[in-house]
């Protein structure tokens, strides 16, 4: 682990893994709070690393301190839930030593009801002898190859403190230094600009990324989704749809994109077109072991709730009610869904 000023989360994280790992290695990049003292309750392998605005350097240093055959990495606001601890113990108990990597699902977004809204896979447990390296000064990734297992273990991200300006400040410091951005840097700087609502600048960097013949297809799909959202927000539905259709060039249609197209038609009151795309979203099979980014809401309740709206507008209240009830199975306390339920009861459905 690499950490800095994580006194509010580090104990929770380490408590969740202390019984399933054989050593805990902490690399501190400059804490000024009680973080390191808390860590001493779990390990004596605590190292200092001077922060140089480079996450990969710190992570590679942490990996260099590992003495066991395999390395699991986490961030301070990650935890393993009890069911995932048990899954980890099972894999560890009968581990296939031919494996170079074990991927785990990373659940990073949740709605107010605890439902997962954003998840993707990451290489989490790797063979130390392969000497895999972290790459990228920010939004770093572990370059892994060889024999991999896509496990059913989940890492749950439970962020407490947000540092909204840290990443974009690092990027802009690098630009001031005259650093040449790789295609990946262009992508993630675009993401930071987008998250900071600097949309015009974000679109500029996104367009550079999409114009390249290189780049991960999953990233290109996500960029198309973001660009669609932006053009929907400024009431340019045709341009919004253009980017979702472009995403179909990279892979089979995804429920996220189909729902965005459906929403664009719904806003234009083109109900039959909207219904077509929402129903298409429901027919899709979610890729099981893809490393891409997925919002589970678009694969579950959102298309049903939107079909409820569409069919109600068309006067088919019975079918609208049916879709609302399916959505309610996923979000039983959702105030909008409950409002719809009462509405249908009042009209005798």
From TrEMBL:
Its EC number is 2.4.-.-. Signal peptide: none annotated. Keywords: Glycosyltransferase, Transferase. InterPro entries: Glyco_trans_2-like, Nucleotide-diphossugar_trans, TPR-like_helical_dom_sf. The keyword Transferase applies. It is an enzyme of class 2 (transferase). One of its GO terms (molecular function) is glycosyltransferase activity. This is Glycosyltransferase. Residues 2-88 form the Glycosyltransferase 2-like domain. CDD domains: Beta4Glucosyltransferase (cd02511). Transmembrane segments: none annotated.
């Amino acid at each position: 682990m690499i950490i800095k000023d994580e006194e509010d989360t580090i104990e929770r994280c380490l408590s969740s893994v202390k019984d399933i790992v054989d050593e805990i290695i902490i690399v501190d990049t400059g804490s000024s709070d009680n973080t390191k003292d808390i860590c001493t309750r779990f390990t004596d392998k605590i190292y200092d690393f001077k922060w140089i605005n480079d996450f990969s350097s710190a992570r590679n240093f942490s990996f260099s301190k590992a003495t066991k055959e395999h390395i699991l990495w986490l961030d301070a606001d990650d935890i393993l839930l009890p069911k995932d601890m048990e899954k980890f113990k099972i894999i560890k108990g009968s581990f296939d030593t031919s494996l170079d990597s074990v991927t785990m699902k990373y659940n990073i977004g949740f709605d107010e009801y605890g439902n997962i809204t954003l998840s993707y896979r990451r290489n989490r447990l790797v063979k130390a002898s392969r000497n895999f390296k972290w790459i990228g000064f920010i939004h770093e990734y572990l370059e892994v190859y060889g024999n991999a297992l896509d496990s059913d273990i989940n890492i749950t991200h439970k962020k407490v403190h947000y540092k909204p300006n840290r990443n974009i400040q690092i990027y802009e410091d690098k630009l001031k230094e005259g650093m040449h951005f790789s295609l990946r840097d262009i992508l993630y700087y675009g993401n930071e600009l987008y998250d900071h609502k600097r949309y015009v600048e974000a679109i500029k960097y996104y367009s550079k990324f999409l114009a390249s013949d290189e780049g991960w297809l999953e990233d290109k799909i996500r960029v198309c989704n973001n660009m669609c959202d932006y053009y929907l927000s400024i009431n340019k539905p045709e341009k919004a749809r253009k980017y979702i259709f472009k995403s179909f060039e990279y892979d089979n249609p995804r429920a996220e994109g189909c729902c965005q197209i459906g929403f664009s038609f719904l806003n234009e009151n083109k109900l039959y077109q909207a219904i077509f795309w929402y129903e298409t979203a429901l027919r899709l099979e979610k890729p099981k072991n893809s490393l891409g980014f997925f919002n589970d809401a678009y694969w579950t309740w959102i298309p049903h709730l939107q079909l409820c709206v569409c069919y109600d507008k068309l006067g088919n209240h019975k079918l609208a009610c049916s879709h609302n009830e399916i959505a309610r199975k996923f979000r039983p306390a959702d105030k909008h869904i409950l409002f719809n339920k009462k509405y249908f009861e009042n009209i005798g459905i």
